[in-house]
Design a protein that fits this description.
Blueprint (H helix, E strand, L loop, with lengths): L14 H25 L1 H4 L3 H22 L6 H14 L5 H4 L2 H18 L7 H50 L4 H9 L8 E6 L13 H16 L4 E6 L2 E7 L19 H5 L7 E2 L9 H14 L10 E2 L4 H6 L3 H17 L2 H12 L4 H8 L3 H15 L6 H17 L6
Parallel strand pairs: 4-5
Antiparallel strand pairs: 1-3, 1-4, 2-3
InterPro entries: CdaR-like_regulators, CdaR_GGDEF, PucR_C-HTH_dom, PucR_C-HTH_sf
Organism: Pseudonocardia xishanensis
Family: Belongs to the CdaR family.
Length: about 425
């Protein structure tokens, strides 16, 4: 069994051996490259610039190994790390992005095997042979650690850059940006700019427990949101903006109409909703693509501001289910939707439907009282209310829908006040 090499053993390598090692560096690097081509079929298919980058790292590693052997014993430990890190520092910047960590580890293993085969025979005697064998093992280990450090730093830098790009995309959607820069930033994150999506807003997750871990638990929850979205085949972008959490979630193509969607608790997005902080979670309407997402964001944010006016609202709640509250809070978009989806179709169908609806709601929801006020049979009132439901998707006999219809009537009167008002 080989004994563990100590720092003082480095001094036992003679100057003549070091010179032989220096002369062999070129052939050793070429041998490593040849072994990589034979051992890893994908390596031979790399573009010339990437292969040149690997060769540069290998040549630097061989030269640094010889330089390390020649260092004084008291400095060789720290010098190992400096020289191995230097071998990767001189590599082209995009090499770590183009080669995976697994591929790099395979190449380091092959290079170490070539070192083990070719370097020890250059020793002057058996003692130097043992020293070179252990030196190769030690230097190979340091090279592997240096590679891992490079990839860890690259991942950390990439993660920080991705987080900033993600925040910029979410902020751009909230602010209503529709320029090419928004689409370009999203593309760098792998987002399909042509995919339909919805904007969800609510409060960010709260930190619980140890105050010293503030922010850590919240970050884990946000990561959980991304995992949940991936499991249900959605893409997601998340942004925390002060006291609100804004989430962009792709919608499956051919998504169902609102009245065909299952209840909120049964939807695939239920685990994502559960990760929001306390309070309402509002979902904006479907946007055709990223460039149109600001419309969904505007509706969702308006709904979030108005949601406290409906304490019994489901979680999540559609922004279009908060139209009365949004209208009262001064949202002009909500007023426009009420006029478009309720007043316009009823007005186009004839004034009797609007008059019947107003009389029914303002008469306390009594069919008989409405029929007497209009001098018609109760069945006529039933028929007209059924037509109202068919045209608007709202039933005057449902308390919540009745509230929406009543607010729409008020909006219609304000939009078209009677003559002489």
């Amino acid at each position: 069994m080989l004994r563990r090499m100590t720092l003082s053993d480095v001094q036992a390598v003679s100057a003549a051996t070091l010179r032989r090692l220096e002369r062999a560096t070129g052939d050793l690097a070429a041998a490593c490259l040849s072994a990589m081509e034979d051992g890893q079929p994908w390596f031979a298919r790399l573009p010339a610039d990437q292969r040149a980058g690997v060769l540069l790292v290998t040549q630097t590693g061989v030269a640094n190994f010889v330089a390390w052997l020649g260092e004084p014993a008291e400095t060789s430990g720290s010098e190992t790390m400096r020289l191995t890190a230097e071998a990767f520092r001189i590599a082209p910047r995009d090499l770590a992005r183009r080669l995976s960590l697994r591929q790099t580890v395979d190449l380091v293993r092959i290079a170490t095997e070539v070192f083990e085969e070719r370097l020890p025979p250059l020793a002057a005697d058996d003692a130097e042979y043992r020293i070179l064998v252990e030196a190769v093992l030690r230097f190979g280990r340091e090279i592997a650690f240096a590679a891992a450090t490079v990839y860890a730093n690259a991942a950390e830098t990439r993660g920080a850059w991705d987080a900033r790009q993600e925040a910029l995309v979410v902020d751009g959607v909230v602010r209503g940006d529709t320029d090419d820069a928004l689409v370009s930033r999203a593309a760098t994150l792998g987002w399909d700019a042509a995919a339909p999506l919805r904007v969800m807003v609510g409060s960010p997750p709260e930190d619980r427990g140890d105050p010293q871990k503030a922010g850590v638990e919240a970050a884990e929850v946000l990561s959980g949101m991304r995992r949940h979205a991936t499991r249900v085949g959605r893409s997601v972008l998340v942004g925390v903006q002060g006291s609100r959490l804004v989430l962009l979630l792709t919608e499956p193509r051919g998504h169902p109409a609102p009245d065909e969607r299952p209840p909120a608790g049964e939807r695939p997005i239920a685990p994502i909703v559960a990760d929001f902080g306390p309070g309402p979670v509002v979902v904006g309407p479907v946007a055709a693509n990223l460039a149109a997402a600001h419309v969904s964001a505007r509706a969702a944010l308006a709904g979030l501001r108005a949601a406290p006016a409906w304490p019994a609202a489901p979680r999540p709640v559609e922004a279009d289910e908060l139209l009365p509250e949004r209208a009262v809070s001064g949202d002009p978009t909500a007023l426009g939707v009420l006029l478009e989806t309720v007043i316009a179709p009823l007005d186009a169908a004839g004034g009797e439907l609007l008059r019947t609806l107003a009389t029914y709601l303002e008469g306390g929801g009594s069919l008989e009282a409405c029929a007497r006020a209009l001098f018609v049979h109760p069945n006529t009132v039933r028929y007209r209310l059924r037509r109202v439901s068919e045209l608007t998707g709202r039933s005057a006999t449902d308390p919540r829908d009745a509230h929406v219809l009543r607010t729409a009537l008020l909006a219609g009167r304000l939009a078209d006040p009677p003559t002489g008002s």
